[in-house]
Amino acid sequence: DSEFCTELLSHCNFKEGLMAGIPADSQVAHKFGEGGPRDNPHLSESGIVFINGHTYLLTVMTKGHDMRELPAVIRDVSNGVYSRINYLFQKNA
Fold it and tell me: Can you give the pTM of this predicted structure?
C-alpha cells in the first residue's frame, strides 16, 4: 500500500512550492492544500524527497495576506532544507 500511495503523490501538479526549491530532476511525492479566509489564506505542502539513495520528509505550512506570495515561502524553505541535507549526505558518503 505504501508504494501505491507514493505513486499517487508523485503525480501532484503543484510545482511552485517544494518542487521549485530543489533540482528539476529530483523525485518527490507530495501534496498541497489551500484554505483559510480570503484575507488570511493558508497554503501548506508536504513531501517525501528522494536524494542520493536517501529520503527526507518536509512539511511547510504558511499563511499570509496574499496567496500569490505563499508558494515562494515554501520554495525558499525547501531550497534551504534540500541544500543542507544534500551537503550532509555528501559529507557522510
Answer: 0.89
